[in-house]
Amino acid sequence: MNISIDLNSAVPLFEQLRGQLRSLVSSGELAPGTRLPTVRRLAEELSLAPNTVARAYRELEAGGVIETRGRHGSFVSSHGDPTRRQAQEAAAEYAARIGELGMPMPEAIEFAASALRSLPSR
């Protein structure tokens, strides 16, 4: 697991850690069920305060990215990437609504593609 923290960044340390762990899960580098280092061990490895790591873990757990199993530790959620899951749910809701409206699929796809193209670049 390759994580680097920029102490000079304006981004809070816990947010840098949270974002990098989430990216590792999204990319598949951290597969579902992977055990994460303990808060203390990761804090030592990254030269961070344990509370910083604990906050990142709490926020990841609240977002469904990781799950804590008491004394057994923290693991990448077995439910997969929550961003992808939420996107699939949104797509299913869109498809259901389009079906209710009786819109032809090619037109519905073009509406969705147009809406996505209008989003700011990331």
TrEMBL record:
InterPro entries: Tscrpt_reg_HTH_GntR, WH-like_DNA-bd_sf, WH_DNA-bd_sf. GO terms for molecular function: DNA binding; DNA-binding transcription factor activity. The keyword Transcription applies. Signal peptide: none annotated. Gene3D superfamilies: Winged helix-like DNA-binding domain superfamily/Winged helix DNA-binding domain. Keywords: DNA-binding, Transcription, Transcription regulation. It comes from the Bacteria. CDD domains: WHTH_GntR. The keyword DNA-binding applies. Coiled coil: none annotated. This is GntR family transcriptional regulator. It comes from Terrimesophilobacter mesophilus.
